[in-house]
Amino acid sequence: MKKAIKISVIIIGIILIPVIAGIGYFYVAYNNFSFEDEYKVNESVLSYFNNSYEEARKNFRFKSDELSSQYLGTQVFKLPVNSSKDTNLTIDFCFIPGSENADKIIVLSSGVHGLEGFTGSAVQLFFMDHYINHELLENTGVLLIHGINPYGFKYIRRVTENNIDLNRNSDIDNKLYTSKNEDYPRVYDLINPKGVVKTGSLANRFYFIKAIKRIIKESMPVLRQAVLQGQYEFPEGLFYGGNDFEPQIENLIPIIDTICKPYNVVFAIDLHTAYGERGKLHLFPNPVEEPVKKRMEEIFEGLHIDWGDSDDFYTYSGDFAGYIGKINHDKIFIPMPFEYGTMDSQLTIGSIKSLHVMIMENQGEHYGYNSKEDSIKVKSDFLEMYYPSSDAWRSKIMHDTKIVLDQALKRFCELEFQ
Ligand SMILES: [Zn+2]
Fold first, then answer.
1. CATH number of the domain that residue 333 is part of
2. How many separate domains does the chain show?
3. Within a domain: residue 329?
4. Residue 112 C-alpha to ligand 1 middle, in angstroms?
5. What is the CA(329)–ligand 1 centre distance, in A?
6. Which residues surround ligand 1, an ion (CB under 5 A)?
7. Distance CA 280, CA 399 (A)
8. Contact predicate 98/263, CB 8 Å
9. Contact (CB, 8 A) for 363 and 199
10. Which domain holds residue 53?
11. How many A from CA of 72 to the centre of ligand 1?
12. Rounded to the nearest 5°, which phi and psi values hold at 12?
């Protein structure tokens, strides 16, 4: 009998020790998740990255005015976005028309996801300094749209004041808001916990166990798709696309339509951060029809495109780049969202961590925080995830941007599209 007990203890030990060691290892890795970027810092690009919405907007307006004095016909204007707590939120525009022969236009947009506008704005400022010249304008007009969700940009949220994810809300037809994400209710509890946020709670410290159990049960691609595709049922939930057009989405339609009207080919680059390998520019479109795909592959030939239907990525409804295509449905259209990775979300630990950061921020917004420290921790993790403070990260993504834009703009200007 004693021997049997002894054997049982040994067997349980053999099973339990690796499990406990594994959990311990993951616990330490998860709760100390951070990055050391090794890329060499390029001082000359750092000034494009601003520390507040107002600063970014001021610099965008300044450069817009400079371009306006250089290029005849440039239009600089703004669209106010109403808010219950701020009377100074605007979307800013700079439109530089192409030459008389130009039949193409580039639309470069930032800040659809509020605080992602910090990096988006930096890329736009870089673009204004380095790419707008007579040679480019010979072939194409350029429309820059700055801070599409100014509320989120200023108040460090991804969503609008109404908790709406604009990259799930962008459409020209309000049928979108009646669509159903059948799988979202199944993941609701995993991503929308209730009650005040306490960062040190067991549920938060061991969040990865809950997430991994669910990944094993459902598989990562299924789970990722259910969570990220967008939903129109739960206003307090993550990835909520709303039940109607957000005002700016409705108000942008005639502006984009009027400006693009004289052109036959529209190339829309929408700037985002967070998803994907850290420090890398991902070309990350939603799946598109074959002729559109072919044009995108021509422009970005030799560069990797993460089609949203591969295992690591996902598809979503109400996307902003697709919406520009819908406004220009009678034209040749080429969308390309740029996604600058920050959290290595292609890895299990990175994807759980980034989701967890979003969950706590959304929870805090709806239910509050247990303490001031909890609020500071969650908000600073959130900002760091969407706008890394690392100079090396900022230098690297600008390096990637230059490589991609050098090629894409050249090919866009040269190619004949059908
Ligand atoms: Zn985004």
1. 3.40.630.10
2. 1
3. yes
4. 7
5. 23
6. 113, 116, 272
7. 9
8. yes
9. no
10. 43-181+229-342+388-414
11. 33
12. -60, -40
* Spacing, Cα 123 to ligand 1 middle (Å): 14
Q: Report d(CA 362, CA 279) in Å as an integer.
A: 25
Token pair listed for 410: 């050249």
> Sign of torsion, CA 50 55 57 60?
negative
Kindly report, residue by residue over 288-303, the tens digit of the pLDDT: 888 999 999 999 999 9
User: Quick check: 86 pLDDT over 70?
Assistant: yes
Which contacts of 320-324 are long-range, i.e. CB under 8 A and separated by 24 or more positions?
320/109, 320/112, 320/148, 320/166, 320/167, 320/170, 320/270, 321/268, 321/269, 321/270, 321/285, 321/286, 322/170, 322/286, 323/170, 323/171, 323/172, 323/249, 324/107, 324/109, 324/256, 324/266, 324/268, 324/270
Does any domain span residue 208?
Answer: no
What tens digit of pLDDT does each residue of 349-380 get?
A: 999 999 999 999 999 999 999 999 999 999 99
Q: Which residue has the higher pLDDT, 310 or 369?
A: 369
- For residue 37, tell me if it sits in a domain: no
Pick the residue with more confidence: 260 or 316?
Answer: 260
Residues 197-226, mean pLDDT to the nearest whole number? 90
CA of 273 to the centre of ligand 1 (A): 6
pTM for the whole structure:
0.94
